[in-house]
Amino acid sequence: MKVAAYIQETPAKMHQVVDKSTSLFQEVKQAAFDRIILTGSGSSFHAALQVKPLLQRLLKIEIEALYPFQVTSETFAGSHHTTLLIGLSQGGSSYSTYRAMLTAKEHNVKIASMAGAEQVLIDELADYVLTVFCGEEKAGPKTKGFTTTKLNLMLFGLHVALERKHITQEDFNKQLTLIDQAIAKFDHVYQTAEVWVKANQETLAAASDLRVVGTADLYGDTLESALKMLETLRTPVTGYEFEEFIHGIYNAINENSTLIIFNSGKEERVSKLIEVLSDWTSQVFVITNQQVTKWENSIYLPIDENNPYDMLFLVIPIQLICALVPELKGINPAIPKDRQFHQKLNSKKL
């Protein structure tokens, strides 16, 4: 199954995630915890990092997003918190996430698993199994799984916030309406992104030095975009938060550089950065929900920055780059470079 076909399943799987959420979070929402650690690798970590600020606003407690290697005995030493650790793994087979969960369990921490499949490795350690009901995704790069994992985390936050009376039932219902409104936009976003990618695919296929820049509110999505393109285009790609980029990274940009810049309207200096960099290289691509027509190579998506579920779709153009452009390079993006890699490195239970 091609990567694009998995992307197209996103709206149906989002509806399924919403429909399952009431029963899925019934037990965990009643648990006592005043600190959450979200841990996972790759796309799972990026999903956690992207949703973390929203969870903090909803739950009003300490929340950390950590790579599995950062979860050590010292993470829990001397802590006065009652911690819930949520291990995320799209396939549920990551040994590094499993080891992080095991470390937490050894310190009497409550454990939840959040995988895109049922009855998987990380579920074995979980007190609460919080499956992302997105269906199987056999392609190496995860697309619908990334989007639905973020949505599952958001719904977790909403259900816990409602249980703890941080929001009212009316507030909760309004969020469900916003989710439905966002899902209804998917087809238009997808079609707009597909046209844009096909118009620029030759230039993107030729890119040998690619940078992704996004503001702090899109940091998880920025890192995910870099990872996805690196996986599928198989050329060096790096992603940077806006402030980090302007504090030195810009020095490496020249006429051979290709940049993809997210502009969500949160930072007014992004427009100036685009202007400056466009004098250095003609390969500056902008993904934005701002109605600005002066930027060449830009794509405008009708996404409401005040609807966090709309914002889930800002990465759709990147996902379509990953689905379509590698084929121009003779690469099947659904198939990893080495199908035996995880067996060789003993990094996943397969």
Automatic annotation (TrEMBL):
<dbReference type="InterPro" id="IPR001347">
    <property type="entry name" value="SIS_dom"/>
</dbReference>
<dbReference type="GO" id="GO:0006002">
    <property type="term" value="P:fructose 6-phosphate metabolic process"/>
</dbReference>
<dbReference type="GO" id="GO:0004360">
    <property type="term" value="F:glutamine-fructose-6-phosphate transaminase (isomerizing) activity"/>
</dbReference>
<dbReference type="InterPro" id="IPR046348">
    <property type="entry name" value="SIS_dom_sf"/>
</dbReference>
<dbReference type="Pfam" id="PF01380">
    <property type="entry name" value="SIS"/>
</dbReference>
<protein>
    <submittedName>
        <fullName>SIS domain-containing protein</fullName>
    </submittedName>
</protein>
<dbReference type="InterPro" id="IPR035490">
    <property type="entry name" value="GlmS/FrlB_SIS"/>
</dbReference>
<dbReference type="GO" id="GO:0097367">
    <property type="term" value="F:carbohydrate derivative binding"/>
</dbReference>
<dbReference type="GO" id="GO:0006047">
    <property type="term" value="P:UDP-N-acetylglucosamine metabolic process"/>
</dbReference>
<dbReference type="GO" id="GO:0006487">
    <property type="term" value="P:protein N-linked glycosylation"/>
</dbReference>
<feature type="domain" description="SIS">
    <location>
        <begin position="24"/>
        <end position="172"/>
    </location>
</feature>
<keyword id="KW-0677">Repeat</keyword>
<dbReference type="InterPro" id="IPR035466">
    <property type="entry name" value="GlmS/AgaS_SIS"/>
</dbReference>
